[in-house]
Amino acid sequence: MKQNSPDATGDTWVFIFILFFVIACYGHPAVAVPDGYAAQNGGTIGGGDAAPIMVSTASTFISAVNNNTPAVIIVQGRLDVGTVKIGSNKTIIGADTASGLYGGAIKVEGSNYIFQNLTIGPSGSDAMEISGATNVFIHKCEFFDSSDELCSIVRQADYVTVSWCKFYFNNPNSHSYAHLIGNGDDVTADRGKLHVTLHHNWYAEGVRGRMPRVRFGHVHIYNNYYNSVGNGYCIGIGYECHIRVENTHFDHINNAWADYGGTGNGEFGWAALKFEGCSQPTFMPNTFPVFTPPYAYTMDPVDNVKDLTTDPIYGAGNCLIAFANDTTPPVPDPMTWAEPPHSIGGADITMTATTAVDLSGVEYYFANLTDPTHDSGWQTSPTYIDTGLELNTMYTYQVKARDCSLNANETGWSDTASAATAAWTCTAPIPVDLTGDCQVNMDDFSLLAAQWTNDPATVELVVNGDFAADLSGWTLTPNAPTTITWDNGTALLARNDTTDPSNGNYLYQIIPVISGKQYKVDAQWKGDLLNGETGRNWAEVFVGFNPSAAFAGNIIYKKATDGGPNAEPMPWDWESVLLSPNTASSPADGIFTATDNYMTIAFNLGGRAGVGPGYFYVDNVSIVEALPCPEVDLNDDCQLNLQDLAVFALDWLNCNRDPASQCGL
Q: Active-site residues: which are they?
């Protein structure tokens, strides 16, 4: 979909990238062309065509930015710069996806800035504060973990574009916010300022609100993706705001927009939005188009926004960019060897290519000219270990590299280099020789240790099973007088009145599983169903399977008080729910075979009228796939423990190679 303002002429140029400068020996970093409001007011060029400066320490970075002289600064690595003020006329770009700034606040208070391909955060304040600055272009950056906004735009800042950026919090709290645009209803100097474009941004995990919150400003939002589950709201409608939202996807969030004092005098309009797992707010009329942006822009269909912004290589955030006009291969070209091929014992040969550089990213291909079935294929690591070769055999190799641009530009092949595998034979097998090289050493122990640390190699299917911060991911259906609340890292189910009977007070999740596979269920609970009184109350665990994502289940584990089966003394302290089977068929090991493609795990509190106000806590709910026995099970008991280590120790450093001189390699 192409959208032009009425007075725009010519072709739109969003997403057209140009080669902006060349750094000898570092490839060809390219700066995206500023668009949106950052292209207005005379445009934004940052440091222009100034000779690039490569910085790899905090001190050299601070020295490079503490003036208003035009500069192009390439940040190499993650630099702890603390709180630093950036002078005007700067282009600051990361050398690769591992580069960025952290430790304080990035203060942007002048004019004419380009920030690109940087990871910014964590920060003990605003990760970036654009305060009074004009013509600021922020592109392909990643902001995370600040104690205030990730990127605030305040105090008459103007002509700002934030595009293709990712915002998230690893440990969110009630103040985990993205953008504050305009910082007070009484700051009337913001009128006529705060022109901001936000497009193709991804508001991801942990962002609770202000995506953005707007006062006074003219804010154009399009092709953004919101999936910050557990948020309070996304877009805050504030005092005298003017907000236009188009082709944007809201995915399982709370309150796509909310009133922050702007419904009476603010303007808000929208078009072509997508709501998935959430609904469109209805409290404010749609006044689209609100305003007409003074620039041409191209929008993607709203159904494509999620895939575009979350693409791990070309999406939002500090990830690789596919430059359509990148026609230059990585350097060095042709490739060279950092470490030529050489034997590492047995049937293995290792080699390392010179680390190649290209802003679009680099992949390597190692060719085994002696046996092409042992070629590496394209890989991101510059090191290749060729395994399973023939003993006492010479192998010859070459390596080349290519970039990750759409053109996949390749270097020339390196010079050939050769290495021979070890020459020995195995006189007899050793049972605990896990690598098959006829000796027991640290290589075998590494395999044992890897299995040990990964045992069981399971994936936890339950969302927020430890209730670390809230009850997110769970569905709650309490019936009065019962409540289900978060209580200091646990879920608390409580009867708060005993007048009437109660039941069907569910805390549950419905989880996709695979029919026919086995899954192990467990949880911890404690409580008191009577609070010192008498009668019959009960705590139940439901497990069941259903062909669709609908509640289904039977009572599998249960605790109850006097007056019926399953009566147990009260109170009880933390223990596994598996210790309270409801019937003889309730699996004591918690392993269920899935009979359909969705699994329900649910907790219920019930009680009779006139019985004590019972309660119980739930924590550490777990559903994992029940896996087969470990591969490295040396005593055949289907578990990996100290007994296997004892078996291994008996053969430690045993070697049956001929000649014996090959032992110990």
A: 210
